[in-house]
Amino acid sequence: MIILIDGYNVLKQMRNTMITESERRQFINQLGTYAAKKSHKIVLVFDAGPHDRPVQERISGIYVVYSGTRETADDYIREYINTHKSHDMILITSDRELRRHAGQNSIDTFDPLDFYHMLSQSLSQKPISASATREAVKTSAEGTEELDKLMAELTKGVPHKHEDSTLQEEQRVKAQQISKKERRILKKIKKL
Length: 192
What we know:
By secondary structure, the chain is of the alpha/beta class.
């Protein structure tokens, strides 16, 4: 899948301040690690750059594009969408005009903050052991050894509630009722 990213739009959503060169490089490195882990092609587009025409570099395994001085990153992204719309692609931006253009070309869009959260989670994710989910956790320093033993014993046999099954069934039915477009977007998000 191609993940097309409106670079400064995403960074500004994450930081709300001036973006430093160090932060930009860190983001590129994170995306490179993510692309290698997930086997996605990432195209990261920034405004401006050292030349008047678009320049593309491969950094940390991703394509980093500088739009040049004659066009904006938005112009470059629109053209990229037009020429690659037959590919499996998702656009990461909060720009309304770009999201509209992507939608007109059957390209799904994803919110920058949600993407960054997913990116961060993917890069720092540690598997949870089955035993960790079953143990009682002490939440205060107070208490006695007898109370601790009692709580540990009680958590071993927590019965399954009927409400839990009903809620899962309702969620399953609701998932079946979503539109084709929503199912397509969910499928792409799972690939991320």
